[in-house]
Fold this sequence. Notes:
Distance between the termini of chain A: 56 Å
Strand content of chain A: 5-15%
Helix content of chain B: over 70%
CATH class of the largest domain in chain A: Mainly Alpha
Largest sheet of chain B: none
Largest sheet of chain A: 3 strands, antiparallel
Structural class of chain A: mainly alpha
Oligomer: heterodimer
Number of helices of chain B: 16
Number of domains of chain A: 2
Number of strands of chain B: 0
Amino acid sequence: MNFGGLHTDHRAIIAVAILVFLVLTLVMAVLPALREQALSAPAAGVTPRVGEEERGRQAYLREGCGFCHTQFVRDLPMDRPYGRPSRAGDYALENPPMLGTQRTGPDLADVGRRQPSDAWHLIHLYDPRAVVPQSVMPAYRWYFVEKDQAAPGDVVVPVPAGHAPPGKVIVAGPDARALVAYLRSLQQPKVAP
Amino acid sequence: MTIDISAIRTRMRDPGLVAAPSADPATARVSFEYVAWATVWLLVGTTIGLIASIKLHWPEFLPFAWLSFGRVRPVHTSLVLLGWSSLVLVGLSLYVVSRTSRVPLWSPRLARIALWLWNLTLLVGVVTLLAGVNRGPQEYREWVWPLAVMLAAAVVIDGYVAYRTVAARTLPEVYVSNWYILGGFCYLAILYVASYLPFYQAGLGNTVVQGYYMHNSMGMWFTQLALGVSYYAIPLLLGRPVYSYALGVLGFWTNLLFYPLIGAHHFIFSPVPWWLQSTAILFSVGMMVPVWAGTGNLLLTFKGGGDAVRRSYALPFFVTGLIGYGLASTQGTAEAFRSANIYWHFTNFTVGHSHASMYGFIGFIAWGAVYGLVPRLTGREPSPLAVGVHFWLALVGILTYVTSISIAGILQGFAWVSGQSFIASVIAAEPMWLWRTIGGLLMVGSHVVFAANVWAMRPQRDTVPVAAPGAVGSHA
């Protein structure tokens, strides 16, 4: 190879650089991604989210919940409280999969099983500090309505005294209920032993 | 091997400058416009970052949907990465390709169109992200695809302008700065397109691409342009050749060969293929070659130049930035090992690392180059005192930031490993989050001073820019 030629030939430098980067992109990203895509067959009994759960997932994406909450359990002792180690199949129907890179809040891969109470989730979304005093999670009050009196069919949130305006009832809006439906749907599929 | 080292060295003694006339006014103006707009995005992006920081120890601060933590976080990262850091380095790079090729920029008009396309993308990006329109928490590719198409178009236009300028050069060699700069434009275009194409991103395929994208956007774009600009500005400001031209070229090729292999180290212990994770860890160690070739080479260029550093207001930024490059990259390598990853992954330690590299390395290099080069293209200098205030606020700010957030990360990791309840890690980290805000406040303050300095360096109307007579290392 004539290195002398290379360093006076801008076309050659660019061509070699582009070629190498394209090959590495193919080998390190595109081909492994294609393989993972093919391998990520959904586990038995897993179906795509529809209706309220899907609406809740949209709200979860909109609010950027995934920047603080992982959905990715590692095979490490410290991750045991969050569920079994994550498998490729867990993410087959997730678009995008939200493994995450930060755990400012706890992992949610299996939160639907760990915390099955609708009331707890609704209070927690309305004011996280009403159930976990030291929490730093944002309060998603814009998904709730303050009313003087609940109407028939309203989902009233049992917010503890001191965490809601006195004399008002807090009613969960459609997105709050959808978010809870989504969180409840986060249950790791069972795997054959 | 037929490199004529002595011929190159002679040329390096003056990287295309002494004989060159003063900067072409149109080139100078468009370069300055990039720097000025980058500064606007720096102010907005870091103010947003400060808001996000405050929310972690004061969760009821600004409790509005459009300013909630999950929405401002991608605005902060998008603006400081794709707004400030990219635009300032593109503006400086356009100037560097023109000067090292000894020709005016090929088409300042096209470069200006790209700048406006870029600004429009950022503006719409901010509004959509704050409104909650996004692609989910896919770091640095959160905004929707039409914006990605616009940004890719701007990158391709800028890259083409740089390419045509280098192609028109009046010297036989392609100066090493231009290798890095042209490479950076090509890599970013490929990277951006490959990361937004959906055909292989179902299920975990998406995660493989995520690792590739978020990692390479650092080393194959910001590092490329920052080193390209440094290989021009540092020898120029010191008035001496770069320590080793060959090391610069070695750094270029080893960075290209090693860096794209290590993206998967963000997903260690995940179901992403084990071979991909292990390759990533292995080459995270390999990265020490280009990192220390670059850091060492440029720092050795300073050897015996202590006097010039003391007299210059631009060079201290470069020295800090180069040390930041070496340290932050070495830290990244350490974090990739599985044993260290157990303690540090998912913690705030990663946030400290990203700020050490994007601010301690890229930011400081960019500021050094702005203070070193912009007075040459506009003929106006900022007050040295104001530059000093900027330097010390930014340095103390980033040191406070990185120290506190790294301690927060270590405390989080220890709380998790020792099996305490999750909230114990929040309680342990919270005092450090307050310190992080204090550091961030100093950093934002330094950016206000920087903005005033950029304003002081603005081109005068109707005058031909000439090299500022007082600029250190000026040959004029």
